[in-house]
Amino acid sequence: MIESESGMPRAAVEPAEAGPEARVFAALRRHEIAFRVTRHGRVRSLAEAAELRGIAVGDILKTLVVRRSDDDFLFVLVPGDREFSWPKLRALLGTSRLSMPDAAGAYAATGYERGTITPFGARTAWPVYADSSIAGRTVSMGAGAHGVSVTVSADQVLAALGAELADLTATP
Q1: CATH number among 3.40.462.20, 3.90.960.10, 2.60.40.420, 3.40.630.10, domain 2-170
Q2: What are phi and psi of 149, to 5 degrees?
Q3: How much is the mean pLDDT over the chain?
Q4: Is the pTM for the entire model greater than 0.90?
Q5: Pairwise CA distance, residues 74 & 105, whole Å
Q6: pLDDT score of 12 more than 80
Q7: Which of 17, 130, 155, 172 has the most Cβ atoms closer than 10 angstroms to its Cβ?
Q8: Burial of residue 25, with CB atoms counted within 10 A of its CB: 0-12 exposed, 13-18 middle, 19 or more buried
């Protein structure tokens, strides 16, 4: 383990920090967010990811890409043990038309493949909405590449992204 720039222990990363995760790490450093990197290879489910990270499913922060119109997207952050609520987001945004882009559309909007998406280092700094239940927690989120995650303070993430907190989920 080595210390990150902001004092939180983190796993060592490759010297070149190559690949899409390098954008994530650079963005976290710019925002002075302490992070710890975990690498575990591809997973098939949130439960498998949680097990390999040694955390509860609810401590995984899912990043969803939502389309408002052809070239207008936003990020939604929700805990892994909760279901995203379309009606709640539509009500918050005052719209009846929202959708999820297909895999190619998500990649075009973010620069990341599904399963690796994060607002940090994305191609465009889309607005961020987060479920209020993540405030005050430590969470694990995707870091731009399959099998790579970062453990971070949700409060630091929310502040850095200027995220709007709201009730956006339901318990499954």
Answers
A1: 3.90.960.10
A2: -135, 165
A3: 89
A4: no
A5: 13
A6: no
A7: 130
A8: buried
